[in-house]
Amino acid sequence: MLFGQSVFQSVLERLKAEDGTDEDAQAPAAHRVPGLGTGLAFDVMEGVSAASQRVGQAYFDILDLDPAAAVAEEPAAAPPPEPVMPDHLARIAPEEIAGELAIIAADTQQTLNEKRRAFAKANHPDSVAEPFRDHANRRMMIANLLIDEAMRRLPHR
């Protein structure tokens, strides 16, 4: 072991001496990463344009398509139809929502929680089109108030 070198470094020095090669004599190709058997992808592919450095353009380069032609060939898409509000979202009176929830005196906390989840699944604002979210929000608030009130009136054990 040479002074100031670890065992590993001294083994490397000895192997280099036995091999008779020098690292400087074997300068790796600029596009190669030392230790890897292949070059980088941009050096392996032929005819890669500078535009392919953009993520969206690289896909078209691989397919040999002209992106301008691909966009021009698409038929004009018809505008999506206007969403239609479901009938149940129009019912925002507390009496109507209470009828849908069907809260009865025999309901337990567990049944009330099940009714809350079932109502939320059918009426949650995230599951309806944007123009109808106010109605869905209002319905959810009223249903939650009615269920919370029914839970408050449950006998405490």
- Class derived from helix and strand content: mainly alpha
User: Cα-atom Rg, whole angstroms?
Assistant: 35 Å
Kindly state the mean pLDDT as a whole number?
A: 78
Unreliable stretches: none
- Main β-sheet description: none
Shape type: elongated
Let me know the number of strands.
Answer: 0
Protein name: J domain-containing protein
Structure, described:
This is J domain-containing protein. This protein has 157 residues and is mainly alpha-helical. Among the domains are: 32-74, no CATH class; 87-152, no CATH class. Helix content is 51%, strand content 0%. The protein has helices spanning 7-19, 41-44, 55-63, 67-73, 87-90, 94-101, 109-123, 133-152. The longest helix is centred in the last third of the chain and has 20 residues, at 133-152.
Q: How is this structure best summarized?
A:
This protein is mainly α.
Brief descriptors of the model:
157 residues, mainly alpha, 51% helix, J domain-containing protein
List the helices and strands and how they pair.
Elements: H1 7-19, H2 41-44, H3 55-63, H4 67-73, H5 87-90, H6 94-101, H7 109-123, H8 133-152
